């Protein structure tokens, strides 16, 4: 069930204080804390910083367990919390910390979260506990049955959503180190998690790895990238007992909506009728606009341009890709994600990244970096790839270059690295 948004005066200590205190809450490879343990540590931090109510607390570069205890301590105690992902370069973290947006006089603690910064310097977006938790399930009785794996940085919006879901429902959180994939999976399996949120890129990697099949997963959540039907079908076959949820969210807008019907895209009814308190619209360029109930307004009607292009097919809306990621081939727009979806249909391919390469005649060429399954790529596989693309794509969408690579990087946020690094 969904509760109404919390009162602005509510803080994380109040949330945890209302839960069964002996219930386990945070677990790492070396340490386990109950709810009572977290509350005690948070209160000790407050006692040691009596002036905290007037301070800005910058949380950067902390171990996940220390970070989460500090979140509980400072929410409702300090005026502002600045959450900076550990992957940010120190000079960028210092710059963001020194250039905070104006501080309006509000009763609740402000949470300042950094955007991904994929197209420039990250920006700080202001939230409160109320705006961050408005879409969470709050059922402590059911929450006690879940053990969430945390594979995101808790300072990123997606990671914070997992953390707050655990706090509001009293679910145990298994904390992992995002720097090492093998250690991450080992920790998840060793602790028998039954709920996990990750990007589609990470989920594809988990499926290929295979070890998560040992976990009794009951809840699978995806977000941050386009979710294609092939991946959804793979997850259903691998985890038949799990509920699969695709969350559409961003740091700027918060959680927009969730899709649970096992189909790619989302129902057109979300646009025509709204979804909960969230309203959607599609402009004449195919951009998806979202009006969340508790987020800063961008245009006069309160809508935010998400930057995602979509396409309506029948009673369904499908994501095409980011508008700023389009490849221009002789005036024709090519969405890398569409070409990648077609290429992933081939069983010989483990992973793929499509990008544009500048060309003086037609603007850009479509380039596909392919990680072959098993043996290294050869000319036979190259011909199969091009033949498959010609059958399923428009001529300008077919890759002009196919490069076989040993691996494709994943960004700290869990998304496919599209810079080519």
From TrEMBL:
Keywords: Ligase, Membrane
Membrane-protein topology: Peripheral membrane protein
All residue ranges annotated as the AMP-binding enzyme C-terminal domain in the record: 339-408
Domain AMP-dependent synthetase/ligase: 101-263
Enzyme class (EC, first level): ligase
UniProt superkingdom: Bacteria
InterPro entries cross-referenced by the UniProt entry: AMP-bd_C, AMP-bd_C_sf, AMP-binding_CS, AMP-dep_synth/lig_dom, ANL_N_sf, ATP-dep_AMP-bd_enzyme
Listed PROSITE patterns: AMP_BINDING
Coiled-coil residue spans: none
Protein name: Long-chain-fatty-acid--CoA ligase
Natural source organism: Geoalkalibacter halelectricus
């Amino acid at each position: 069930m969904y509760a109404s948004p919390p009162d602005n005066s509510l803080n994380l200590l109040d949330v945890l204080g209302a839960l069964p205190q002996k219930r386990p809450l945070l677990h790492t490879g070396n340490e386990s804390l109950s709810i009572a343990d977290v509350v005690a540590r948070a209160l000790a931090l407050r006692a040691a910083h009596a002036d905290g109510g007037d301070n800005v607390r910058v949380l950067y570069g902390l171990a996940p367990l220390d970070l989460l205890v500090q979140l509980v301590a400072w929410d409702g105690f300090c005026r502002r919390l600045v959450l900076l992902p550990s992957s940010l370069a120190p000079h960028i973290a210092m710059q963001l910390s020194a250039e905070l947006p104006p501080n309006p006089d509000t009763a609740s603690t402000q949470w300042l979260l950094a955007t991904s910064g994929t197209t420039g310097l990250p920006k700080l977006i202001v939230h409160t506990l109320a705006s961050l938790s408005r879409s969470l399930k709050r059922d402590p009785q059911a929450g006690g049955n879940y053990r969430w794996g945390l594979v995101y940085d808790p300072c990123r919006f997606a990671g914070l959503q997992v953390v707050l879901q655990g706090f509001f429902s009293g679910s145990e959180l298994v904390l992992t180190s995002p720097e090492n994939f093998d250690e991450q999976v080992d920790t998840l399996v060793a602790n028998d998690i039954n709920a996990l949120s990750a990007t589609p890129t990470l989920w594809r990697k988990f499926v290929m790895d295979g070890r998560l099949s040992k976990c009794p997963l009951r809840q699978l959540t995806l977000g941050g990238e386009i979710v294609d039907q092939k991946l959804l079908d793979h997850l259903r076959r691998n985890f038949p007992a799990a509920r699969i949820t695709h969350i559409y969210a961003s740091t700027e807008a918060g959680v927009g909506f969730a899709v649970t019907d096992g189909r790619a895209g989302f129902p057109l009814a979300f646009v025509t009728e709204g979804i909960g308190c969230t309203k959607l619209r599609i402009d004449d360029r195919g951009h998806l606009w979202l009006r969340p109930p508790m987020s800063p307004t961008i245009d006069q009607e309160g809508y935010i341009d998400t930057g995602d292009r979509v396409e309506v097919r029948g009673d369904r809306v499908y994501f095409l890709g980011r508008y700023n990621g389009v490849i221009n081939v002789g005036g024709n727009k090519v969405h890398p994600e569409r070409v990648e979806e077609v290429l992933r249909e081939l069983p010989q391919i483990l992973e793929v990244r499509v990008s544009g390469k500048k060309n003086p005649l037609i603007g850009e060429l479509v380039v596909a970096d392919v990680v072959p399954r098993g043996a290294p790529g050869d000319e036979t596989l190259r011909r199969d790839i091009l033949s498959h693309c010609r059958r399923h794509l428009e001529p300008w969408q077919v890759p002009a270059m196919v490069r076989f690579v040993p691996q494709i990087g994943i960004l700290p946020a869990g998304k496919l690295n599209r810079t080519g690094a």
